[in-house]
Amino acid sequence: MPQHTPAPSPSRAVYSFVMYLSFEIFFILYLIWAVVPDEYFHLLGITFLPQRYWAVAAPIYFLIVLTVFAFVIYPAMGKFMTPNLDDMRTIKDTAGTRRNANVLVNVDSIKEGKCICKDKDKCYKEFYDSIQSKVVNKSIPVLKDIEMWDVSERLYLK
Fold first, then answer.
1. CA 15 to CA 87: how far, in whole Å?
2. From which domain of life does this come (predicted)?
3. Last residue of one domain, picked from the residues 81, 109, 132
4. Residue 1 domain-assigned?
5. Looking at the structure, do residues 61 and 25 belong to the same domain, yes or no?
6. Is there a domain that residue 52 lies in?
7. Is residue 2 part of a domain?
8. 69 and 94 part of one domain
9. Rounded Cα gap, residues 108 and 133, in angstroms
10. Residue 103's pLDDT is what?
11. Which residue intervals of 36-119 are DSSP H helices?
12. How far is CA 37 from each of CA 28, 58, 98, 131, 139, rounded to the nearest angstrom?
């Protein structure tokens, strides 16, 4: 199996389980630290805990940073990475503007070949030849450029 695949693997399952357990343990420790009075910690000999201020301040700081990233930084990155309308990267090529780019295969040009299967009872060539026109018509069209004006019209005018 390739190394960089999103498929489940035993090592990925172990890492996920360890991450889940460690999160649960740290969250329970955080709740204990935030709720239990200091006297109980002193009875156990634990005197080096941070101030209670950080029990509330750290999550609020994290949420503020997350909000700023989600609503300011991330959209700004998208805006700065988008080329201007007069940029050379927005100019289309001739291969992507063909009107017949939706046609994948010309069904009439397919050569009728003989079946090379060893077992003729298990041969599906005739079946595939009979349904090919249906498959070609339902296939995903070839990549092509779309006019900006068509996109704007479909998004905003209708």
1. 45
2. Eukaryota
3. 81
4. no
5. yes
6. yes
7. no
8. no
9. 9
10. 47
11. 38-43, 53-68, 74-81
12. 15, 19, 73, 74, 66
Same domain, 18 and 65: yes
pLDDT tens for the chain, 158 residues long, are 456 777 788 888 999 999 999 999 999 999 999 999 999 999 999 999 999 999 999 999 999 999 999 999 999 999 999 888 878 777 766 655 555 444 444 444 444 566 777 777 777 777 777 776 666 666 676 777 777 778 888 888 86
Q: Judge whether 70 lies within some domain.
A: yes
**How many structural domains is the chain composed of?**
2
- Kindly report each contact of residues 100-104 with a partner whose C-beta sits within 8 Å and lies 24 or more positions away, as own/partner: 101/141, 101/142, 101/143, 101/144, 102/141, 102/142, 103/136, 104/136, 104/139, 104/141, 104/142
Residue 43's domain comprises 10-81
Is 30 in contact with 55 (CB distance < 8 Å)? yes
CA distance linking residue 75 with residue 7, whole number of Å: 31
Contact yes or no for 112/87 (Cβ under 8 A): no
- Residue 41, helix vs strand vs coil: helix
